Amino acid sequence: MDDYTIVLNAGSSSLKFSIYVRREAAAWRLESRGQIEGIGTAPHFSARNGAGGRLAEERMDGSVRDGPSALDALAAWLRSRYSGARVLGVGHRVVHGGAKYAAPTVVTPEVLADLRALIPLAPLHQPYNLAAIEAVAERLPGVPQVACFDTSFHRGQPAVAEVVPLPREVCRDGVQRYGFHGLSYEYIASVLPEVAPDLARGRAIVAHLGSGASLCAMKNRRSVDSSLGFTALDGLCMGTRPGAVDPGVILYLFQNLRLSAKDVETILYKKSGLLGISGISNDMRDLLGSTEPAARLAVDYFVYRAAKEIGALAAVLGGIDGLVFTAGIGENSAEIRKRICEASAWLGIDLEHDARLTGRRARQLQWLRPSPKRRHGRGRFLPGGDSGRGSGRKRSTSAISFNRITSRTTGTHRF
């Protein structure tokens, strides 16, 4: 009997999935992947097999209105395709693990309660991540579930990189810099030895540029610092989030404009960033294609902030051996990569040395190394350590050995 595992990345309007299979004594391999997007508005389902061939592409009816109904729709498709399959476990991307969870963790009621307490720190993501865990528990009782955290990769940074300079009594209950997008960065770190061995041993800055955006400084494939901090609001300009902003502006919103906490949260998470500056769109493709001055300003600010943070992280590293681009904008927008590299030319980054990597492991990243003449210094719950691509604009980059989890758990379930 073949063994299967499921990987889920649940968001507010999408549900991404990957299915892995292990046949007899063979290694785990990607069987299928896909997503339901437009949940609650115009739901659309797509799925591909492990080789990238289309399995399904269809619009869904209005009954797919929220996360649980999307999971039901996915379960129906899985049953039709993998009837009777034995499910060993389900892995989930969870954005915030706080200070307590620094590694993939088998979900228990206690763990779930701890993660619920972190919802205020990641309101755009955490509620939907946890809702998927709860929905799976109802539908596959007894099957172990594993939470993989976006914050985990950054644990172990120097204390100076984690501290928030507020009074100790404020910080003692967990107010610190956590960093995010760790599953993406962990994937990059895992493939660097294969695609860029010299850089894997050196000083790399990785630019995860998508609707959410951040930078991570790595030394010998370990996180040294990152641009995101206590929440996923800090650092770079993002699709609808501002990135770094003077805290006095936030006080002004409360004290002078008399906005409520909910109003301010909505502004910071849903109305700022590229959308706020342009007044047009949070999609970089729309802004690059627009001739409106506000759209050009939004793009210019995005590049400006990225180049500024790259410079800061280069100082942290004491130089840079390479710059890596990943995520939707980083992977697909040559124009944005070009502009950021030109703004970072003082570091020796030279587009003539752009290595557009190819192959199964490397197809999700581009990296650039400093010119030799000016050298100043380059998914995650995949069974058996294998890797694969997510679907849609974003991808799942989580990768841990499922063998390491299932050795301690025995629950299974059939589709």
Description:
- Strands 1, 2, 3, 4, 5, 6, 7, 8 and 15 form a 9-stranded mixed β-sheet that branches. A 6-stranded mixed β-sheet has the order 11-10-9-12-14-13, with helices on both faces.
- It contains 15 helices and 15 strands.
- Mean pLDDT is 84; it is low at 355-364 and 371-410.
- Helix 12 packs across helix 14 (334-343).
- The protein has 2 domains: 3-156 and 382-414, ATPase, nucleotide binding domain (Nucleotidyltransferase, domain 5, 2-Layer Sandwich), CATH 3.30.420; 197-374, 2-Layer Sandwich (Nucleotidyltransferase, domain 5), CATH 3.30.420.40.
- 33% of the residues lie in helices and 22% in strands.
- It is of the alpha+beta class and 415 residues long.
- It is globular and about 55 Å long.
Task: Break the fold down into its secondary structure elements and pairings.
Blueprint: E1 3-10, E2 14-22, E3 29-37, E4 44-49, E5 54-59, H1 67-81, E6 86-94, E7 105-106, H2 109-116, H3 126-139, E8 145-149, H4 159-162, H5 168-171, H6 182-195, H7 197-200, E9 203-209, E10 213-219, E11 222-226, H8 247-255, H9 261-270, H10 273-278, H11 284-288, H12 293-317, E12 322-326, H13 327-332, H14 334-343, E13 349-356, E14 366-370, H15 402-406, E15 413-414
Parallel strand pairs: 1-6, 6-8, 9-12
Antiparallel strand pairs: 1-2, 2-3, 3-4, 4-5, 6-15, 7-8, 9-10, 10-11, 12-14, 13-14
Helix pairs in contact: 12-14
